[in-house]
Structure formats: C-alpha cells, structure tokens
C-alpha cells in the first residue's frame, strides 16, 4: 500500500475520491450487469420457448372464439333475447346471414364442431342447414327454413346452450378436465358417468408416478450407496452401467421390455423352463409392466442426485458414531441417512415430476387402465383436434405439478436439495 | 435429410440465383403414411410419374395427424401439395376449411369411383378394410364369422382389438345379430350404443388393445393372441414378407377409404391436379395392387387386376358379400363423444 492512499483510506474514500461504499456499489453493479448479460440469452430463450407457449396454452384452455367470431350477428341479436323460449325471426335472420357467410368462408364446420362438444349431433345439423340456406331465396323469412331443417332449431334448451357457447371465454374445457359441466340451466353439475374419465386419469397418473418414485428409491438407494463407497475403479464401471440406459432411446428400451415380458416372451419362457411356473403369467399390458418399464427408465434420475450427496459425506462420521458405541443400524439411521435426505428429496422430486408426463411407455406396455394424462393430451391434440380440451388437461397437469412442488418445498425445503 | 430433399434444396437454390424459379415450380411434395403403403404408392405412382414427366416428387410421411395439416394451413406456409388422408380427416378437414374442394370433372365425374367413396374435399384412391385374422398354423379349422370373434367359449384366448370405438362398435353389433345395412341406424340411438358396449363387455377381459398397425401381426406371430383385428394390408404383408400363414376372416369386414386431399394454400393447383389425374387412372391403380392388397377406388381398375391378386382384395366380390362401409358423417357427429365414452368404458 503506497503512502499516498493511506490517508485517503483513513478518511473513508478510495483513490478516485469516492466513498468506499459508493465505490463498492459501483463494482458490484458492474459485476451484476456482467452476470445479467451472461444470463440474458438463456433468459430470452426460456421466455420465448417456454413461458410464452405456456401462456398461450393456458389461454387456449379458456379461449372460446369459434361461435363468437363466426356468428357475430347472431350473438349480438341474442343479447336482447331472454332464455326460456325460442327466439323470433330477427335472431334467425341474423343466424341465416352469419351461416351464409360462414358457408362461403367454409367455417360452418368449426361452429358445428364447437357446439357439438356440448350438444352431440349438432355438427351435421349446422352443415345441413348451412347448405339449405345457401339455396334459399334471399330476404327470408328464415325461421321456417330452420324449423323445416331439424327440430333442434325449435328447442329452447339448444338456444340457451348456444347463447352460452357464444361467449368469448369459456370454463367448459377446464370444467370438463375435472369431470364437471354446466347443465341446461347453467348450473354446475357432475359429468354424466359414461363421460367422466379425467379425474380417474389424474389420480391414476399420480398413483403410477408415486409407485415409480418409490420403486426407484428402493432400488436406487443401495446402488447409490455402493457406488459412493466402492473404490473408484469399480465405482466407475458400475456408474457406466447406471448411465448406459441414458444412451438408448426410450422407445427402444420400452420395446425391449415388450419382447421380454410378453406371454411367450423370454421371461415367461425361462420361468416355465425352470419349472417355476405351470402356466404363463401376464406381465405386460398391465400396471406391473408399466411400473417396471418406467422404473427402469427413471432409475438414473433418482440414483445420481443421491449418489452425489453420498459422495460428499465423510466416512469419518460413521466411524465416529460406531466408535462412540452406536450399532450399525442405529449409526446408519441417525447419522448417515439424515445427511442423504437432500439427495433423496431431489431424486424423488425429479422422478415424480418426470413420471407425471409419461406418454409412450404406458401406451406400449400398459393396458387401458394405465394410460396417463399425456395420452389424453396427445389424443385431443392430434386426433380430436380439440386443442381447448388438450390445453385444459395440460393446465390441470401443470397445476398438480405446482401443488406437489409446493408441498415438497414445505416439507423438505427446496434450498436443501442438492443435484450434484 | 434425405438425398432427394438435399438435391431439391440445391436445385431450388440454383434456380433462385439464376432467377429461373419457374422451371421448378412444378415439383411436388406428397405426404402419405409411410411403410409398405407408401412404398406401394412410390412404385405405382411416384416413380412412374417422375419417369414420365421429369417432375420431381418429394415424399414426406405423417401419422394421419390432422393437426399437422391445420398448423401448416393456419401459419400460411403450405409445403405439402397432396396428402393421403383417411375418411375422417377428409370430412373434418373439409368442414373446417383446411382442405380444398375437389373438382371431380377433372377425373371424369364422381361416377367413376366406387359408390359412396367420393368426398367433397378428397378424391378416393384405395379401399382398405378392418378385418380380423388368425394364425392358421395354430388353428386348423378356424373361425368363420364375425360372431366367432366374440365367442370365447368356442375360441378361448386373447383377442387383439384396435383401441378405438371405430370398428369395434360396428363389429359388436354385427356379432349381436344386427344386419349389415342396419348397423349405423342402430348405432345412432342411445340403446344401440349401449347394446354395442354390452356385447364388448363380454370379451373385455380377453382383449389386448393395439394402436399401431404393426402390432396385430406381431401379436399374432408371438402367440400373444389367437385373433386380431387389423388392416387387411398388414396381414397380407406379414404373409408375404415374413412367410406367415395368417388367415383373414372377411365376414363383417369394415371398409374404409384412403383419399387424396389438397391443403389450402397449395403452391400449384394445376400441377397437383395433373399428378392426381395420373394417380387416378385405371392402369396405375391396378399397378398398386401388385404391391399392397388394397382395392382400387376406381371401378375401371378392376379388370386390369390379375385374378390371383384380386382374391386378396377387400373389394373382391367373394370377400365383400357382408362388407360394411364406414359412415364418416356418423363418426363426424358422434366420434368425439363415443371415443370419450369408450375410454371411460376401458377405464372401468
């Protein structure tokens, strides 16, 4: 330290004449800016590729544009109409004008499909009346054309429903995702039994994820312990075996299980040959096969965090406990195990949350009772083209995941989690 | 990226730099279902067409996801010129305005095609059917009627059925004694649907559900099931390439169509129509049956087919005696509700 700066320091100022506090703040601000600049690309990437699509998905679950956009005049004309009866000519005229325009724009099917969700069979009636309106003489009267086309158009219940479906936002998809619906009077009721499936699927998804988490923990904990205590040469070989599945695609691994588990498969063959079985047993297309294949895939995700925590625990702790008189079981449960909990928490949370989103494995090795929420999200996205329902199911899955994360955070504390 | 795509890309780049894009405007991108089916289209349509006209055809594959077509049309970047679609997609895509209306005058009118197979927005190309089959090496005197599929007393063992109400509800009603021409009439009533599910209840615990077309032959071959519903071409394919001895039961077969559709925003409508006209000629449609056992949608193609090929087609008179044709309007109206009810039923 040179002699010139010493008095300045003593006076509480730096060489540049600023106070130490200000100079420190400036240095910190600079490093904060640097770290922000380093993080920005990732942040932008996450916002663009994750947050925005997620927002769109959540919005799709309540968005209800089909009727409001395609039949604007009808929706406006129905404002003055009170529910309980069948509207008069002006509403029919508005609907006729809207439908004729929709026929030209080929959007009648969209409206029909949306109404069909709530009133099955309505789709073809829209298409039919649309074609009839195109051919009808201009100027009306329109109501008789509708009346002649189908009894649906003189049904007060249909009109109340149409008015509700005309709103720009809807709770329909979200309600349906938890097996609820609005009945004809607009009151909240349970879904009819032969259409109520999503709550079952949700509980099934949670239950399968829990089973997989528990079985990966039971299998993985001893492996992690062995890995952490073996000499490096052996540990590396074992580690390779744990990591090997990572290099094979999930599809290939799942298909391999089909070969092993089917009734005339390798496993059944061996057991019959050994005389362990008299009759071949069903190992696949059921819950057992699903949990087994998923456990196999998820095992490394549980093992690695536990292993990395165990690696950091000094063997001296156990030796100290034993030398102070603790038995092996007591020393393990009171000294060693509590220290591994952050790893166990991280591994289990990771596996549980990843399991919630499984799709291909249950589809291939599970039975109809093992399909999880993702299966239905894919079904509604690809097959039904009902993106509102798919989004609502996605939103429910997201909400459930958040709830479990929050519970986990309250019980274990996310700050205690160590991933490596 | 396949070799042809690279070549097309390189050519397109060259054309752009030379300012001569028009020379390549006719190149087509055609999307189908992949596998043996697309291979048969390649042999019967794509290769001969390129040989004849020098127009390059880029092939793409999809799994019938109408969502892909919708996403492409909605984003305004239609890269596919012609798409092989199933009847449900043809109907839905038309209703929702993502497929163009077909000008049948370019094909000599609707009457040229098998009755009931023409769609407003898609022109039929083949007739396939959902049948059930068994392994004749394992069962000597096999099942004969659609009722046998549901008869677990006479034919014990597991059955593989497709995991969709489509087909299964129709089979159940036919097995329950509903005449072929009354099936959809009965299904339109709540009691009819209940009746179909009740019949399915009787074999529910004996069913392995399949989702991909490759599964039924595999399930039959491994002995996992004694009977399996399947698309007839897959069973034919397994017999031909894997030397299996699977027998098809044609009784109560459910016929359906595959069709060519043109998505909205297509690059060159004329070039696409020119190809579709070629693909809808009797000679080429007859040619396709050499590679896969699906019937031609064009009535005039049948005389061009050799008898030993004809006997394996769903449209052969001998096989089609008790055939039921899919009713796309019924499935358009009730599909979503029935699929949900079916999944709920499965979960019980």
Automatic annotation (TrEMBL), chain A:
Transmembrane segments: 33-59, 206-228, 240-263, 283-309, 344-367, 387-408
Membrane topology type: Multi-pass membrane protein
One Pfam family from the record: BPD_transp_1
InterPro entries, sorted: MetI-like (IPR000515), MetI-like_sf (IPR035906)
Subcellular location(s) of the protein: Cell membrane
Domain of life: Bacteria
GO cellular component: plasma membrane
SUPFAM superfamilies reported for this sequence: MetI-like
Family: Belongs to the binding-protein-dependent transport system permease family. CysTW subfamily.
Name under which the protein is recorded: ABC transporter permease
Taxonomy of the source species: Bacteria, Pseudomonadati, Pseudomonadota, Alphaproteobacteria, Hyphomicrobiales
TrEMBL record, chain B:
Matching CDD domains: PBP2_polyamine_RpCGA009
UniProt keywords, alphabetically: Periplasm, Signal
Ranges in coiled-coil conformation: none
Keyword field contains Signal: yes
Signal peptide residue numbers: 1-25
Descriptive protein name: ABC transporter substrate-binding protein
């Amino acid at each position: 330290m040179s002699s010139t700066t010493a008095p300045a320091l003593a006076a509480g100022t730096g060489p540049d004449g600023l106070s130490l506090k200000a100079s420190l703040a400036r240095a910190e601000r600079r490093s904060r800016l640097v770290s922000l600049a380093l993080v920005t690309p990732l942040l932008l990437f996450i916002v663009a590729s994750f947050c925005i699509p997620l927002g769109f998905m959540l919005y799709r679950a309540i968005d209800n544009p089909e009727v409001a956009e395609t039949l604007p005049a009808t929706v406006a004309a129905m404002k003055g109409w009170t529910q309980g009866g069948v509207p008069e000519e002006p509403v029919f005229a508005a609907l006729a004008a809207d439908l004729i325009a929709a026929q030209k724009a080929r959007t009648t099917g969209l409206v029909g499909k949306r109404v069909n969700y709530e009133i099955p069979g309505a789709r073809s009636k829209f298409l039919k009346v649309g074609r009839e309106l195109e051919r009808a003489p201009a100027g009306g009267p329109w109501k008789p054309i509708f009346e002649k086309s189908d009894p649906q158009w003189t049904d007060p219940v249909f009109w109340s429903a149409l008015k509700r479906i005309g709103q720009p936002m809807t709770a329909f998809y979200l309600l349906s995702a938890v097996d609820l619906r609005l009945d004809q009077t607009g009151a909240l009721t349970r879904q009819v039994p032969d259409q109520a499936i999503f709550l079952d699927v949700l509980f099934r998804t949670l239950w399968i994820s829990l089973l997989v988490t528990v079985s990966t923990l039971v299998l993985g904990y001893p492996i992690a312990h062995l890995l952490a205590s073996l000499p490096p040469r052996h540990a590396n070989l074992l580690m390779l075996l744990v990591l090997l599945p990572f290099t094979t695609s999930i599809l290939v691994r799942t298909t391999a299980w089909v070969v092993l588990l089917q009734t005339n498969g390798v496993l059944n063959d061996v057991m019959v040959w050994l005389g362990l079985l008299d009759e071949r047993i069903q190992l696949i297309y059921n819950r057992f096969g699903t949990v087994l294949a998923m456990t196999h895939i998820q095992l490394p995700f549980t093992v690695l965090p536990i292993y990395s925590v165990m690696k950091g625990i000094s063997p001296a702790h156990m030796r100290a406990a034993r030398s102070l008189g603790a038995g092996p079981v007591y020393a393990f449960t009171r000294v060693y195990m509590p220290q591994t909990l952050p790893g166990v928490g991280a591994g289990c949370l990771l596996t549980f949350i990843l399991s919630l989103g499984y799709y291909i494995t249950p589809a291939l090795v599970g039975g109809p009772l093992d399909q999880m929420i993702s299966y239905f999200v894919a079904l509604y996205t690809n097959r039904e083209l009902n993106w509102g329902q798919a989004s609502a199911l996605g939103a429910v899955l997201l909400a459930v995941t958040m709830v479990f994360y929050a519970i986990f955070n309250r019980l274990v504390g996310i700050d205690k989690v160590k991933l490596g | 990226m396949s070799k042809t795509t690279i070549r097309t890309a390189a050519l397109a780049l060259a054309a752009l730099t030379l300012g001569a894009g028009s020379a390549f405007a006719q190149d087509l991108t055609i999307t189908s279902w992949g596998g043996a089916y697309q291979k048969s289209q390649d042999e019967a349509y794509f290769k001969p067409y390129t040989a004849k006209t020098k127009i390059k055809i880029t092939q793409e594959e999809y799994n019938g996801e109408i969502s892909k077509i919708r996403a492409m049309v909605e984003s305004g970047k239609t890269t596919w010129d012609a798409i092989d679609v199933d009847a449900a997609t043809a109907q839905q895509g038309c209703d929702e305005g993502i497929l163009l209306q077909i000008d049948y005058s370019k094909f000599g009118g609707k009457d040229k095609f098998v009755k009931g197979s023409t769609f407003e927005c898609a022109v039929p190309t083949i007739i396939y059917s959902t049948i059930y089959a068994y392994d004749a090496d394992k069962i000597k005197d096999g099942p004969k009627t659609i009722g046998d599929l549901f008869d677990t007393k006479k034919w014990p063992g597991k059955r593989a059925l497709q995991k969709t109400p489509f087909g299964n509800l129709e089979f159940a009603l036919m097995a329950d004694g509903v005449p072929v021409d009354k099936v959809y009439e009965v299904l339109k009533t709540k009691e009819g649907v209940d009746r179909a599910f009740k019949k399915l209840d009787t074999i529910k615990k004996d069913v392995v559900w399949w989702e991909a077309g490759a599964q039924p032959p595999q399930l039959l071959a491994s002995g996992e099931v004694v009977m399996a519903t399947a698309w007839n071409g897959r069973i034919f394919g397994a017999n031909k390439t894997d030397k299996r001895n699977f027998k098809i039961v044609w009784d109560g077969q459910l016929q359906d169509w595959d069709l060519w559709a043109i998505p909205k925003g297509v690059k060159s409508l004329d070039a696409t129509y020119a190809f579709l006209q070629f693909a809808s000629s009797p000679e080429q449609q007859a040619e396709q049956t050499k590679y896969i056992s699906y019937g031609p949608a064009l009535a005039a193609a049948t005389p061009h087919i050799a008898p030993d090929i004809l006997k394996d087609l769903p449209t052969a008179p001998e096989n089609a005696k008790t055939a039921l044709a899919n009713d796309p309007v019924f499935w358009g109206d009730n599909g979503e509700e029935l699929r949900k009810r079916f999944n709920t039923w499965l979960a019980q």
